[in-house]
Amino acid sequence: MNYILSIIGGFKYYNANFIINGKRYNAKISSVATYNYLADGGEKCRLVLLVPESLVGMLEEDIDEAYKLLNDREKLKNRVLGRLVDGGVVTDRNIDVRIIQSIGRYSAQGRYDLLFINRLDNVIFQVFIELIDVFNMEGRVYTDISTGHNIYVYSILEALRSIIVYSKLRKLLQGNAGLRVSIASSPPINTEGLSVNVEFHDYDVKAFFELPLKGIKDYNISVGSFLHDRSIVNELLEEFKAQNIDLNLLKHDLELLRKSFNALKYNTPLVFFNSNILNLKEELIDENKRFIINLRSILEKRFRNVCINNSNINVHRRYWVNRVFLINVMFSLALLESIAGFWRSKISGKQPSLNYILNVFGDVYDKLGIKLNRRFLERDIIEIENRIQSCKEKLDSYKPLITIVKRCGDESIKEYIVSDPKRNFFAHSGLIKDFIEAKLNDEINVRYIDKPDIINQISSWINNPEK
């Protein structure tokens, strides 16, 4: 799917001839020309227009009617779409119009003024959430920056940066590229009949295998975590209680991400096969995403006030979201989604052999750019294989590796556990002999010994490797 994204800055546009790769398209805005160009090539397309709510002043001369429109988003959207169709900006109603927040002061044709008391973080976060809803996180996005006020163009570009990272994190372990984004631009058009070129430039942001929320305090989530301005915390807490919103569900997934991330980064793959240490079956990703997405609606309903004051309409948003934190939460859920998808396809229900662990995790480490983990894992697996294969004892059922080693009389084996057990656990890919048991049929299968003290110790280490 191709998405053509544009900001609408008004309703009066001039006809122009937009030239795209040598082809000429007559339209009033370049996003429509881009849509037609792609459609002519047989591409499936969707035109998405982001419309600031301040354009109500261009739609309605009467202040009371404007007030009503500002309190009825669906009606405002329909009025915008009708004006765009009537003005020939778009040719049909089969487009996606999204009303976005405004910021600043605007004159409504000299009849009244509009004042939007708002924060840029709120605008960017709303655009981010709208785009989450629009995109399926695959395909290509063409973002037209030729129309719209600078502050909204900046907002869409900033939101797109986050969307690109989000789309990549969702499939990071699978090696998928995520959304591809191009910026479309054309010169200003201030008269009828101009011929202008439309240029496309790639727009990309890298996504890294790192925890989006890095500090331990970031995981101790409270109502205030979502806000810069804490003055409305008590009111928002009341709203959460009224709607039975439980933040423990979000905390659960963030803790699950931290443990699974640490297991990958610090190279302890066997923990993925033990649900008592790491249970990815219990993820609540969809529920938590819905909560973050719905948070905007909760804030708008409770903390957005619209009032008429003489010849002014004041739209006051009393909230100020902690955009960076909220988007990092969405990044965290996206990364957990990728890890959970990997777990479901490669790990769930399997009793792993050493070769299987090396093949599966070696491939993932390569994709994540942590290739040293593969080398260390291979070294530790070969060491275990050599110990077991040199032992003549029958291993048709699981037996502790420490027992196998001692029975085979390998006096050269160091007692790693005596010195620093945590250090040795991570230094040997989580495969230290005191914690695992093995059996040998066609291949060597391994698992952690099912004892509470061992399982709890590993779980504690994985949760906080550096403590």
- The figure for the number of domains is 3
CATH architecture of the largest domain: 3-Layer(aba) Sandwich
Mean pLDDT: 93
Q: CATH superfamily of the largest domain, called what?
A: SSO1389-like
The Cα radius of gyration reads 28 Å
Number of helices: 16
- Secondary structural class: alpha/beta
CATH class identity of the largest domain: Alpha Beta
Number of strands: 16
The spatial strand order of the largest sheet comes to 5-4-1-8-9-11
Task: Please state the overall shape, judged from the principal axes of the Cα atoms.
Answer: elongated
Percent helix among the residues? Answer: 40-55%
Query: Stretches where pLDDT falls below 50 for ≥5 residues?
Result: none
Characterize the biggest β-sheet.
6 strands, mixed
CATH topology of the largest domain: Rossmann fold
Content of β-strand? 15-25%
First-to-last CA distance? 46 Å
How does this model look, in words?
This protein has 16 helices and 16 strands. With 467 residues, the chain is α/β, with parallel strands linked by helices. A hairpin with a 2-residue loop joins β12 and β13 (312-317). It starts with a strand and ends with a helix. It folds into 3 domains: 2-208, SSO1389-like (Rossmann fold, 3-Layer(aba) Sandwich); 210-304 and 322-347; 351-467, no CATH class. The chain is elongated and about 95 Å long. The strands form 4 sheets. A 6-stranded mixed sheet has the order 5-4-1-8-9-11, sandwiched between helices. The protein has a 4-stranded mixed sheet with strand order 6-7-13-12. The protein has helices at 30-40, 56-59, 63-70, 73-86, 120-134, 150-169, 233-242, 248-265, 285-303, 323-346, 354-368, 371-389, 401-407, 416-419, 421-427, 452-463, and strands spanning 2-7, 16-20, 23-27, 45-52, 96-100, 104-108, 112-117, 140-144, 180-185, 194-197, 199-203, 304-309, 312-317, 399-400, 436-440, 444-448.
